[in-house]
Specification:
Number of strands: 37
Shape: globular
Strand content: over 45%
Structural class: mainly beta
CATH class: Mainly Beta
Radius of gyration: 25 Å
Distance between the termini: 43 Å
CATH topology: Maltoporin, Chain A
CATH architecture: Beta Barrel
Number of domains: 1
Mean pLDDT: 90
């Protein structure tokens, strides 16, 4: 039934966009009031975002498919973590190992297994992606501290450089406000899961600040699937008149988690055996600290300059394949990563011939030092990578209704690598430094885009851009001799339209062609797994649709559908772990002044096993449907809520390799209370 509903909704969205001629769009020209009480219609044409070009501009001026997840969306959704929230959006596919946001992967536009290095995740403008294959750690970002999430699909290499291939996710945390806001939150649910949060934000004179403390503890859906984390953070701002804004953000995250591993094909559909593990002692723990400082100066007629400096420190230790015959110390691998980011930007608005234009340019630099110790192999891998890029981006108004955007980036990469060996001298273990190897390369990227405002509530856009991705340190450590950067060509065309205060919808068609795409596969000579470049081009094309409807003041409906075809161009086989079809629908019904019901349903189509590059070795992952719901009661400063995830009690997995599966949780419940004062 849900499948039929999703398909029908998607067809309706596409049909409405195609048939909605001027007679529909001329009906009324009504702007949305962002301060409207009792739930603002969450239409996006008038939204201001900073993700696409690192400067604030309206979505209607961006030649990309952009989605904004607001604070209101976050608070009212049944989702309990960031990745579940992202997974309901068009063109985004979730791959989770343990049913939490730890070690979860968010894929945009069908990148597949290497999405961790092809989708950029930013927090307050600083890159969260590590230099290895670990991927950005979404669990290190407390959900209650997020003000908004901005998603820009497609290439972003001109502005964001290496790895901005499938898209960019920019997470913006809360800032202090004039009216103080204190919150206490606690919930409890299935698998002995408890979640506690406390936060306070305010503004005193020109100073704004937020503080938060969060604690999460769960035994997990599977044996040895526990997950425990702690977060504390603060954000301090100072507005020096109307000209200078200073911001300092600090965050500390700690976690410990069990590594339950996969289950066999025979056990994945058994309710009893799918929760078992043959790795009861494997675990990992992480400590991550982030510090971000930013400065913005408004020079009036001379433009605006900005500087952002970020530091991120990650310590991660883990045991995989525990043996009681070996001491814990000798089988605990450790990763120590230190990353420094610097972004300098300049923006200037100017007028020529009575039309508004915008010039943007900047320099970004990030440097990472990473040490991985593997005592079980007597190895220590050292890496130091450095990226420096210069970019500029121009917005030219050709007419009042036609905007032309074009940009260019030049990027330099330098890497130093060394593998040390642990040896014994006179009964004492010592590390012996290995030979230093170097990798250097230069990359360029450019993009061109057009936006045509047919009417204030209707825009059409198209863009042509390039992207690049440099091999990460893990890929270089186990690579063939000629592993090098991949390059992509991206094209998209689409439109957004709003019909009065009733409906907003968008359609985007895209194509991505990647040359020398980096992947992990079997060496044709040795038969061993190795990181290499595809000999042929990979081609991804598809369509993304979205609709938001307010049929009456008390009901908000939304839905989206995406079709993604990811193939090797010559061979004709499909990229593993990429579903062709994905659709989501949602309902928010304000039953009364105090009660709100939220429902979210998602269907994900079948896809090939992660190790089935030829599409003929392993069984495909089954399609699945997940329905979540939450009921909220709110009175004055008190909020009570109860929710059910996976209402249909579906048995499913989002990830599998060689027919070993990572099962997701079945039906589970939670409930809690939030007090604001």
């Amino acid at each position: 039934m849900l499948k039929t509903t999703l398909v029908q909704l998607s067809l309706i969205v596409l049909l409405v966009f195609v048939l909605s001629g001027p007679s529909l769009l001329y009906a009324e020209d009504t702007a949305q009031d962002p301060e409207k009480e009792n739930g603002v219609p969450r239409f996006e044409l008038d939204e201001l975002v900073v993700t696409a070009t690192r400067i604030e501009e309206p979505i209607q001026d961006i030649p990309r498919n952009v989605t904004v997840i607001t604070r209101q969306d976050i608070e009212q959704a049944p989702s309990n973590n960031i990745v579940d929230l992202l997974a309901r959006e068009s063109g985004i596919n979730l791959r989770s190992l343990f049913g939490t946001d730890k070690q979860a992967v968010v894929d945009i536009r069908g990148i597949g297994d290497t999405a961790v290095s092809n989708v950029i995740v930013m927090v307050d403008g600083i890159r969260l992606n590590p230099p290895d294959l670990a991927g950005p750690d979404f669990s290190s970002i407390p959900l209650d501290q997020i003000e908004r999430i901005e998603i820009v699909r497609g290439a972003g290499s001109v502005i964001y450089g290496d790895g901005a291939v499938g898209g960019i996710i920019n997470i913006i945390t809360k800032r202090g406000q004039k009216e103080h806001d204190a919150r206490l939150y606690t919930s409890y649910g299935s698998y002995e899961t408890s979640d506690g949060r406390a936060s306070y934000r305010a503004m005193i004179s020109n100073f704004s600040f937020t503080v938060n403390a969060d604690y999460y503890d769960s035994d997990g859906y599977r044996d040895n699937g526990y997950f425990r984390k702690k977060d504390i953070g603060t954000k301090i701002g100072y507005d020096w008149g109307d000209y200078i804004i200073l911001t300092l953000t600090g965050a500390h995250h700690e976690d410990r988690y069990g590594l339950s591993g996969p289950v066999s094909k025979e056990n994945k559909d058994s309710r009893e055996r799918r929760i078992s593990t043959d790795r009861p002692d494997d675990y990992g723990e992480t400590t991550e600290r982030r510090v971000i400082g930013s400065l913005e100066i408004d020079l009036g007629h001379w433009g605006n300059i900005s500087a952002r400096r970020g530091y991120r420190f990650r310590d991660n230790s883990y045991i995989m394949g525990y043996s009681p015959l070996i001491s814990k110390e000798d089988q605990t691998d450790e990763i120590d990563e230190d990353t420094r980011n610097l972004v300098l930007g300049y923006k200037k608005d100017y007028n020529i011939f009575g039309l508004s234009h915008k010039l943007q340019c900047g320099i970004d630099h990030y440097k990472t030092e990473c040490v991985r110790e593997e005592p079980s192999r007597d190895l220590r891998k050292n890496s130091e990578v450095e990226n420096t890029g210069f970019f500029f981006n121009n917005h030219w108004s050709l007419t009042d209704d036609l905007l032309w955007q074009w940009g260019y980036r030049y990027n330099e990469y330098k890497g130093r690598f060394r593998t040390d060996q642990r040896e014994i001298f006179d009964g004492i273990e010592r590390w012996v430094n290995g030979i230093i190897t170097k990798e250097e390369c230069t990359n360029t990227a450019y993009d061109i885009g057009l936006v045509y405002a047919f009417r204030p509530e209707t825009t059409f856009f198209t863009s042509y851009s390039t992207s690049f991705r440099i091999p990460n340190v893990d890929e270089l450590a186990g690579a063939d001799e000629d592993l090098h950067s991949q390059e992509g060509i991206h094209m998209e065309i689409g439109g957004r339209s709003q019909f009065m205060d009733l409906m907003e919808f968008a359609v985007t068609l895209f194509q991505i062609m990647i040359k020398d795409e980096i992947y992990y596969g079997e060496d044709p000579v040795t038969g061993l797994g190795v990181n290499r470049n595809y000999d042929e081009k990979t081609l991804r094309r598809g369509v993304e649709t979205e609709v938001k409807i307010y049929p009456i003041d008390s009901v908000y409906l939304w839905g989206n559908y995406s079709y993604t075809e990811a193939k090797l161009e010559t061979k004709g086989t499909y990229v593993p772990l990429v579903p062709k079809h994905k659709a989501s629908i949602g309902l928010e019904w304000k039953i009364s002044e105090s009660f709100l019901l939220s429902l979210t349903g998602t269907r994900v189509g079948s896809r090939f096993d992660g190790n089935d590059e030829n599409n003929n070795r392993y069984e495909k992952l089954d399609a699945y449907e997940v329905l979540d719901g939450k009921l909220t009661y709110e009175h004055n400063s008190l909020k009570l809520f109860a929710g059910v995830n996976n209402i249909l009690d579906e048995l499913y997995s989002t990830t599998a390799y060689s027919e070993t599966y990572y099962p997701m949780p079945t039906r589970n419940i939670y409930g809690g209370i939030e007090w604001r004062f």
